[in-house]
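Please, structure for the following, as C-alpha cells.
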Amino acid sequence: MRHKVAPILGEIDKSIHKQCNICGEWKPKTTFHNCGKCNNCRARIYRQNHPLQVRAGWNRWSGLHPVERAENRRSADRLYRINNREKVNASAREYRKTIRPYTNLRKRLKGGAHIAELRNLIDSYLGRCVYCFEPLNPVTIDHIVPLIKGGTNDIENLVPACGRCNSSKNRNNLVVWLAKRAAYG
C-alpha cells in the first residue's frame, strides 16, 4: 500500500481523517464508505467492473439532461481540439479531400442515382462544371428540373455544377436561369 503525505500540514487528526486502503491518500472520513475505500476509488472500481450498467446510467442521465450533456460534450471536444491540434487538422484535411465531396450528394439524393452513377457522371464531364467549365470545387450536383418544380433524383435529371453556378441557379428552370445569366453577364 502506498502512503501519501496528508494534505494537511502538521499532525493528522485521525478523528476526522482516514487513509484509503486503495490509493493511500488521507481524506476526511465523510468521503469513505464502510469498506475502507474512499468514494473516488469505490467509484473507479465499480466503473471498471460494471461498464454496461455505467453506460446505461450515463445514457439515462443524458436523456434526462440534454442541455448539460451538450455543454459537457462541447467542452470536451474543445479541450480535445486544443490538445490535439495537428491531429485534428490532418483529419479535417483528409475528410475534405476524400469523404466530404460525396457525403452531401448522398444526403440530398435519396433514391434515384447511386454514388457510382454520380462519380461516372462527374467523370464524364471531366470533373468540370457543365455550365461554366470550371473545376468542381466543391462538388455539387444540380437538378436540371428542380425538385420543387417536379424534378426527380434520376441520373437523367442531374448534372455536375460548381457551387457558384448551382447556388445561383437555385430553383430556376434551366432556360430561365441561362437567360438571366446571359442578361446580367
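The mean pLDDT is 83. The first helix runs from residue 39 to 49.
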